[in-house]
Predict the 3D structure of the following.
Amino acid sequence: MYRGKINGLFVFFLTTTMFVSAQTGDLRLLDWEPKARLVVKETKIIKPKYPVIDIHNHLRDLSRAAYYLEEMDKAGVWICVGLDGLSEKDAYKEHLKVSHGLSKERFHIYFAPDFSRIDEPDFGRKEAEKLEEAVKIGIRGLQIYKALGLTLRDKSGKLISIDDPRIDPVWAKCGELGIPVMIHSSDPKAFHDGAVDRYNERYEELTQNPAWAYFGTDVPLKEELLEQRNRVIARHPNTIFIGAHMANLSEDLGRVSLWLEKYPNLYVDIDARIAELGRQPYTARKFMIQHQDRILFGTDTYPNAEAYRMHYRFLETDDEYFDPAPAHKFQGRWMIHGLHLPDEVLEKIYNKNALGIMNMFKDI
């Protein structure tokens, strides 16, 4: 009698111990894929409420240009801006040839200066003249990659600052031609402001891409890079600047708001930042309504119908707690919430603000 009870208790104890052990044992963070038990509405949007201009994309693989156009058609994207028209080796000419061979209206290409030549005498004037010639055959904007200020060096080994006076003729030429400057300066705060440790909210992203971790390196502080960029914007009030990735401070929309108030020639785009914006839906919604005339739609993800649709869901619906990953690469372990923006704000973000900038172009 007693022996049966003892055996039963032993089996119960052993089973319970094994169960607890299975739940509390070591689990690698990279293997953790929690499934939410939350039951919330899911809205599927196939086409946006208004035609879309994707002001920020990279169409580097020209062999896929026809595919890009097909995906744009599926998702209701009217115009896509490719930011990879490199000045170096006149690569921009091939981008224009391929994309405009499919549709001159649907693809716009931006010119990226060749800073490897910055030590040459009169670099700025020569590169500005080359930009003007590029505009004559179809270029419609200037692209500045994050390497400027971050990693690019001149022949002396000195980092080339964003506000290096040798570049001034190029910024000025953009204003003269009526074309915008898409400028990417610095990276997310987590890349700059702390070690890659248990306190870093982008720990997984940075362990997978260690070159993006700048803390403790000789890379300038994020704040310094933003100040360099802002000095350029202030110095060239007749040139339109588009601050890529919400002016690269989506973690602090209050400061971005101050910049928009201070610099009337500054716009921002939402590309690759709906993960950041969607985790602060009240603040982001207020920001977008307040600055509805200065915000542009962009993705930073090659044209893909499902990626576009995730952006539409974020902007148009009041859906809660959904995964933004299909819109872009993995960035952090958080879900987002839709902003449910008013129609008049949506239309401006989707196309009207971009059209306003495009209409500044001066045919030469």
User: Anything to note?
Assistant: The chain has one domain: 46-358.
